[in-house]
Design the sequence.
């Protein structure tokens, strides 16, 4: 360990990454200590979930560069099986760039610009650095009673990485020397890069496995890279303005993992950080980055395609109001196949999950293995200038679903989500019809409540059912098991809705030139439910409760 003065906080050696150990104990570790103890750690944590996503991407960039790869599945397997001895290369790498990881370095402070200042030489409070959730209110989950007057350098390090990744859009301080500044202000360039994607990562049984699963081989994942794809600590120190043009193209996934979307200088002393100078940095544009960013799914955009006169994909962001499993199709290889007309696929699988499929294909993962896929993201409001919600959800999947050469199980899984959607729609229609029959006026409220309750009721059953999928079971049997579970949940909820119907609903009324009452609404529901779940009624007919 190198000698450090009091005016130093080097992330390679000083503890700053929160972790949970296998025995449940908690603590903070330096970068080197985390790598050394990775097999003894259950998970990396943070002040908020998006912080963990951002920190892990920095750690992945270190491993990719230290190991110059992995260049193949064989190379990856060697690192997995010889983790401890492979860390010698990581230590050597970090020794070379150690000075670039000093949070208080006088010339090249980590993820900062040493001489960043405004015309009035002012700095902002820490509320500019710490994420706002929701609507401009500081997110105090771990800050109750501590306030925002000062934070330690370890916590500041975490928020520094986070602000580059997830900072909302909006006006920032006008840095002296930045040609984009007008009237002392830096005008919006959009959120940080990770805030523009629907983050997808893999969760292992320990931190070592988590890092390895996310450490992909670009050529086996559909990711394009180059010799110029390096993180900022290997580049010349950034200045005040943007690096290159207003929106320089990223050089690869490591560049995006560590994208410098802001120019930052932490203001503090030996007792901690009291403020920040936060200015605009490199603008990130999301169009057609699917060959560079592996940790998100992608959606085809008709408007962007027309605008750019070429097929264009945009990151598929997470919907905070929708459980992760409902977007399962976007995680699987099947969605990449174009339809019969030759049109572009509506969704593209995250390259990271394509990588897992390759590991299974090469027998580097057991055929019955289960992987946990984590969804991480931020939902912004008001022109993306405030944080409204944070998305954090984990879905466990049989690794067999990710093999590109076996579509049978994937088809069953994707159709299961579609069947659930149709059954929930039938329930929502029932709720709306019952409200109309009773003369409730607006029916959107009852319909929305029925959807919410139904999806909540199906959440645990789906997560449990999908783990039971095995190649030894026929697709028909697996589908029937799921449809019968959906039928049971939705049928129970339908009986509750009908039980709550008053006399006016049984009498009914004419709505849009047709008579609607409770009995007729129930008949429509039964018909729609049977159509949604054709195998859900095989064993026994639904009987009135």
Sequence:
């Amino acid at each position: 360990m190198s000698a450090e003065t009091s005016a130093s906080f080097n992330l390679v050696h000083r503890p700053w990454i929160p972790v949970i150990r296998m025995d449940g104990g908690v603590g903070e570790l330096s970068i080197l200590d985390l790598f050394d103890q990775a097999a003894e750690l259950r998970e990396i944590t943070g002040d908020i979930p998006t912080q963990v996503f951002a920190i892990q991407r920095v750690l992945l960039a270190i491993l990719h560069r230290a190991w110059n790869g992995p260049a193949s599945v064989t190379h990856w397997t060697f690192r997995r099986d010889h983790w401890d001895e492979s860390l010698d290369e990581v230590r050597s790498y970090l020794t070379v760039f150690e000075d670039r990881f000093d949070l208080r370095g006088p010339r090249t402070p980590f993820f900062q610009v040493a001489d960043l200042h405004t015309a009035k030489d002012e700095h902002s409070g820490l509320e500019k650095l710490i994420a706002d959730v929701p609507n401009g209110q500081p997110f105090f989950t771990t800050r109750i009673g501590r306030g925002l007057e000062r934070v330690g350098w370890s916590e500041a390090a975490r928020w520094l990485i986070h602000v580059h990744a997830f900072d909302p859009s909006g006006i920032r301080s006008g840095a002296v020397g930045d040609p984009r500044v007008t009237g002392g202000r830096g005008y919006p360039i959009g959120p940080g890069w990770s805030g523009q994607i629907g983050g997808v990562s893999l969760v292992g049984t320990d931190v070592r496995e988590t890092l390895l699963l996310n450490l992909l081989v670009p050529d086996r994942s559909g990711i394009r890279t180059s010799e110029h794809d390096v993180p900022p600590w290997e580049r010349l120190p950034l200045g005040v303005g943007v690096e290159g043009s207003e929106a320089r193209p990223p050089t690869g996934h490591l560049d995006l993992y560590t994208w410098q979307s802001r120019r930052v200088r932490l203001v503090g002393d030996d007792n901690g950080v009291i403020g920040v100078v936060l200015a605009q940095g490199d603008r990130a544009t999301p169009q057609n980055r699917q060959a560079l960013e592996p940790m998100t799914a992608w959606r085809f955009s008709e408007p962007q395609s027309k605008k750019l006169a070429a097929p264009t994909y945009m990151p598929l962001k997470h919907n905070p109001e929708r459980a992760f499993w409902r977007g399962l199709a976007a995680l699987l290889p099947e969605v990449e196949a174009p339809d019969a007309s030759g049109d572009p696929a509506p969704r593209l699988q995250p390259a990271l999950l394509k990588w897992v499929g390759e590991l299974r294909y090469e027998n580097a993962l057991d055929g019955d293995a289960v992987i946990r896929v984590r969804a991480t993201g931020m939902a912004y409001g008001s022109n993306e200038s405030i944080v409204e919600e944070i998305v954090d959800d984990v879905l466990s999947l049989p690794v067999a679903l990710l093999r590109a050469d076996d579509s049978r199980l994937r088809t069953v899984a994707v159709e299961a989500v579609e069947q659930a959607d149709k059954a929930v729609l039938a329930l929502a229609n029932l709720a709306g019809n019952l409200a109309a029959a009773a003369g409730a006026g607006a029916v959107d409220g009852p319909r929305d409540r029925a959807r919410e309750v139904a999806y909540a009721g199906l959440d645990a059953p789906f997560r449990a059912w999908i783990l039971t999928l095995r190649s030894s079971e026929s697709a028909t049997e697996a589908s029937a098991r799921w449809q019968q579970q959906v039928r049971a949940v939705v049928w129970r909820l339908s009986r509750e809705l009908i039980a709550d119907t008053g006399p006016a609903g049984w009498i009914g009324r004419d709505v849009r030139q047709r008579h609607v009452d409770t009995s007729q609404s129930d008949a429509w529901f039964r018909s729609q439910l049977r159509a949604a779940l054709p195998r859900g009624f095989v064993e026994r007919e639904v009987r009135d409760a």
Remarks:
- The longest helix spans residues 408-437.
- Confidence is low (pLDDT under 50) at residues 1-5, 541-545.
- Residues 39 and 149 are 37 Å apart (CA to CA).
